[in-house]
Amino acid sequence: MIAPFGYKSGRFIKRPPEQDATLNLLDGATGAAKTWAINAKLISLLAQGYWPGGIGLISGNSKTTVKTNLLNDLESWVGSKRFHYNSQNGELLLCGKPFLVVGAKDEASWKAIRGSTVGIWIADEVTLYPQSFFDMAVTRLRLHGSRMYGSTNPSTPFHPLKKNYIDNPEKRANGDFWYEHLTLEDNPNLPEERKDFLRRQFVGVFYRRYILGEWCIADGSIYGHVLTDDIFYTDEWLRENHPGLKNNGGHAARFLAADYGTANPTVFIDIYDDGDTLWVDREWRHDSREENYQMTDAQYADKLIEFIGPIRAEVILDPSAASFAAELNTRGIYPTDADNEVLDGIRFVSTMLGRKKLRINRGCTRGVQELFAYGWNDKSAARGVEEPIKSADHFPDALRYACRTKINPWRLAA
Asked: SS3 helix, strand, coil % of the chain, rounded to 5?
């Protein structure tokens, strides 16, 4: 059963496709039912027999996110007899109509749709697409009646989607573009306790975007607004307040995370997880520029084994550090590939810090310095691209790998 829609979503879904613009966008808060409404719009179009021709295109940040965000619900709505999906090649037959599912994650993604003629384009997480993919997909809408129906959370106000479409009155005036902004209050199916849960998941710029639905700049310090004194602890404080946390066979799990570099510094961090909070206890680093010598993978492996100590622990490593991983394999250490999504990882660490679910030993002096210095790249932001400054980012990167790889988001639900 499909739940009732709010006024804005219902108006969008029920509007005849002939009255839609070529490009149609829902943006706003997470939990505002944007994707739900896009799915319902697609089913409505197919039920009306609206099909301009060509193929349908369904895109997202990856095929996995498309499956999670869109396809699972679509299959449950139309039934397995009307839903046939090949996850290998992305071909989908939906209610007898051919669709192509594409992950638009990198600059090469546009090649998957080159030469296609698209009648209906369902676009999830639009602001995450490379501009080359978005531009190519727009040119594929070349049939009379071709339509794009997209959804997204807000991003930087310098994003091309914001500058070229949302803030461009000419696009709306000539019928090229239609836009609706949704908030948590526009979803009548979201109870107050669920809204409160969502509000607890974000802090800082991510709260403004994902909860308030604002297109705002991520500038200045990345974690500065959540780095309060009580996040940092000392060995003495830990012994007094959490005796036994680090004892062998105690109640805390232990793992390590590594940010590996050749010319850049390599950092190892030692972490304990008591089931509620992560405790970052020690760090080790080597900076070849400061030390005036470059270590080999074998030397780094020796240092990591020494850092781990006599009791083995899981090691989380950026999957791009293939040569170091291979060296560790020869020592009987098989690292876990880190989830290295940057913005998702930053958002997650920021939430953990804000919720006091991540605590850091003051003895990690260089790491603490890097956390305070870790900042957004203003020059990139002006181009609509958000990324940290690639300096003083080694401890933050290792921390991001650990949190995003090991901690289930539901841990932050309380």
From this structure: 45, 20, 35
Other residues' Cβ atoms within 10 Å of the Cβ of residue 202 = 21
Nearest Cα to 382, choosing from 158, 128, 131, 155? 158
Kindly provide the residue ranges of all beta strands, DSSP E only, lying in 87-185, ordered along the sequence. 91-94, 97-103, 118-124, 147-152, 177-182
The total of other beta-carbon atoms located within 10 Å of residue 137's CB is: 26
Question: Pseudo-torsion of CA 256, 261, 266, 269, nearest 10°?
Answer: -20
Q: Is the pLDDT of residue 125 over 80?
A: yes
What token pair was written down for 278?
């992560």
Cβ–Cβ < 8 Å for 130, 149 = no
Domains 7-190 and 224-408 equal at CATH topology level = no
* Tokens standing for residue 293: 């010598």
How many beta carbons lie within 10 A of that of residue 378, not counting itself? Answer: 12
Cross-sheet strand order for the sheet of 253-259: 232-233, 358-361, 278-286, 266-273, 253-259, 314-317, 336-337
The full 3-state SS of 319-381, as one line of letters, equals: CCCHHHHHHHHHCCCCCEECCCCHHHHHHHHHHHHHCCCEEEECCCHHHHHHHHHCEECHHHH
A 10 A CB-CB count for 305 gives 15
Q: Which residue has the higher pLDDT, 3 or 294?
A: 294
* Percent over 90 (pLDDT), the chain: 73
Buried b (16+ CB within 10 A) or exposed e, 233-271: beeeebeeebeebbeeeeebebbbbbbbbeebbbbbbbb
pLDDT of residue 219: 79
Residue whose C-alpha is closest to residue 58's, from 105, 147, 120: 120
Q: Cβ(19)–Cβ(178) under 8 Å?
A: no
Q: What CATH number is given for 224-408 in this structure? A: 3.30.420.280
Helix ranges, 70-189 (H):
72-78, 131-140, 160-161, 169-173
Show me where the domains of the chain are located: 7-190, 224-408
Cα 381 to Cα 157, 180, 387, distances in angstroms: 9, 24, 8
Rounded to a whole number of angstroms, the CA Rg of the chain reads: 24
CATH architecture of 7-190: 3-Layer(aba) Sandwich (3.40)
Supply the pLDDT for residue 390. Answer: 86
